[in-house]
Amino acid sequence: MSQETIVYLVNLIIGLILAGVMSQYWRLEAAGMSLRPWIVAAWTLSAADLLFVLRSGLPADVVPRMLPTLMVTVGHITLLIAAQRSAERAVSRRLSIAIVAGHFALLLVIRMVPELVPWRAVTNGIVWGVLSLSAALTLWRGSDRMRQVMVFPAFVLAIQGIFHAVRSLLATQAVVTPDADRSAVVQMLGDVEVSLFMVALFVGVLVAYLRQSNTELRLALDSVRQLSSMLPLCSWCNKVRDDDGYWRRIEEYLSEHKVSVTHALCENCAAKHFDGSPASHDHGSMAPR
Question: Does 245 share its domain with 183?
Fold first, then answer.
């Protein structure tokens, strides 16, 4: 087994572990959150690593060279979509399809023209770098709350974009002034970057959503404590005095604290005002949403 295959295999194992952990967390704790696109991105990049492993261990005709490269592009586009979802911005699917199609056409041209093969690393770095920086900017341009929660993933994506820019410059230099050692360094940087990037990004995303869940739980507990404490209730009109000192209908106060209010009829009032069972006049009960 070659060193290149071992590196790809390590990247694959890391990717599968991260994708599995994120999927389990989403299934158990965060099914209603926008974590799904990040999980899809993790599995897509893991699939790309699997293709790299197969490509390095099988004949070239079995796994085309451009297939794992395009899978990485799809993974980066999925990261951009995940950032757009998290930042609550519009998702441009047509642009995403156009980027994949354009990269595929570019790789096809490079394959058909042997003189352009050395420029493959340059073009890949540019495409992936632009997508990473776009995802970082999308997160930074989100709401203040989302920007605070996703600050570390945005930072990792920005570093990823800068890394690809540097790698593209080194690859360009290696093409202009051919040097076997420089080309090996460029390849090594790309292999090592995959593991570091996936660990930093997806662990950061998972921690961000854990922080978000913790914040929402804390707010819910504060609301429960407030509701369970003594409420100033007017003995005449049954209005409640809120934290700002205003007297409000109890239905409005409870509704703001995520408690639905419907009207019912107790036995005493039914016997006093109606000739019948209170069950026939019961329109519901007070229950949490």
Answer: no
Q: Which residue range(s) make up the domain with 256?
A: 240-288
Last residue of a domain, one of 171, 189, 222: 222
DSSP 180-205: HHHHHHHHHHHHHHHHHHHHHHHHHH
Can you give the pLDDT at residue 145?
A: 77
pTM as predicted: 0.70
Query: Cα(84)–Cα(137) distance, rounded to whole angstroms?
Result: 10
- 36/28 Cα distance (integer angstroms): 13
Residue at which a domain ends, from 222, 250, 277: 222
Is the pLDDT confidence value at 70 over 80? yes
Residue 109 lies in a domain: yes
Q: Which amino acid, residue 171?
A: A
Distance CA 50, CA 39 (A): 17
The answer to whether position 261 is within a domain reads yes
222 CB burial (10 A radius; 0-12, 13-18, 19+): exposed
Alpha carbons 6 and 52: distance in angstroms, whole number: 11
The CA radius of gyration of the chain, in Å to the nearest whole number, is 28
What residues are paired with 233 via a beta bridge?
Answer: 240
Indicate the angle between helix axes 36-57 and 180-228, nearest 10 degrees. 160
If you ran DSSP here, which 8-state letter would residue 280 be given?
Answer: G
Number of domains in the chain: 2
DSSP for 205-255 reads HHHHHHHHHHHHHHHHHHHHHHHHS---B-TTT--EE-TTS-EE-HHHHHH
When pLDDT is averaged across residues 33-41 and rounded to a whole number, the result is: 82
Kindly give, in sequence order, each residue whose CB lies less than 8 Å from that of residue 104, ignoring residues fewer than 6 positions away: 66, 70
pLDDT in tens, 150-178: 889 999 999 989 988 888 888 888 788 87
Domain assignment present for residue 258? The answer is yes
